[in-house]
Amino acid sequence: MLMLGLISLHAQRYLNERHVILKGNILSVLLEDWKTGFPDFFRSYLRVTPATFDALLDAIQDDPVFHNNSDTAEQLAADSQLAVALYRFGHYGNGVSVRKVGLQLGLGFGTVVKSTRQPTEEEKEQAKEWVEEHSCPAWRDGWLMVDGTLVPLYARPAHFGNNWFDRKSNYSLNVQLITTPDLRIIDYGIGLPGSQHNATAWKKTRIPSEFVVLLPNGEWIWADSAYPLQLWLMAPYKA
Fold first, then answer.
1. Per-residue pLDDT tens for 64-114?
2. Burial of 178 (0-12, 13-18, 19+ CB in 10 A)
């Protein structure tokens, strides 16, 4: 009887306290219940901790772009727009398509586009004016900048670990960012190992394969000496 009682007890006991996991509209659950109660769920969707998310939100939420309702009667809140952008940044392939993101987060497809939209012609012109003001009129069409950065990993990856060992003796990721002078991200490349040279990692972004469409009328990008010279990619200080 005692043995049967112990077997029954072990079969039904819980080693950890049980918590009810709120489900429903993913976006609202993410930003409310999961952000405070289940940070591991939050991080699995947005690839950042709640503290990092709040720091990013504090840095951007006062920008006028989040308070302009001219193109929509009810604009999505800044924290929701940031969540949509981070969700797309953290996924790839079909999972990052407008349709899949909209269905996953319970948003209209147009809302997804507006949360991660491309620069307008007005914003492009502002970038060109900044370049002209800080250099010369002949260089105004170089309105974008590209550079890579190494994001350290906390440990050596289990698979092909040596590939992630970079020139600074860290295990890291090579992240490529293409931005305007005011740091608006236009294109990016993520997921490559830290040992990857910038010139190679750069080719994994969208612009090198579609520069004819994305950089019309002689527009081009500023880069440093790690990148190959092209008619649309200029490194001003080659040796």
1. 888 876 554 467 899 999 999 999 888 878 888 899 999 889 888 888 888
2. buried
Could you give the CA distance from residue 26 to residue 40 in angstroms, rounded to a whole number?
A: 14
> Pick from 18, 113, 114: which is nearest to 66 by CA?
114
Closest CA to 202 of 152, 146, 151: 146
Residue of 19, 81, 79, 86 lying closest to 48 (CA atoms): 86
| 8 Å CB contact between 127 and 143 | yes
The set of residues, in sequence order, having a beta carbon less than 8 Å from that of 219 and lying 6+ positions away, is 141, 142, 143, 144, 232
Matching residue, tokens 């072990």? 10
Q: What is the DSSP letter of 33?
A: I
Assigned token pair, 118: 């491309």
84 closest CA partner among 65, 110, 64: 110
**pTM, full prediction:** 0.70
Domain boundaries, the chain: 26-115, 121-234
The closest alpha carbon to 218, from 230, 209, 228, belongs to 230
Helix (H, G, I), strand (E, B) or coil at 122: helix
- State the amino acid at position 212 in one-letter form: V
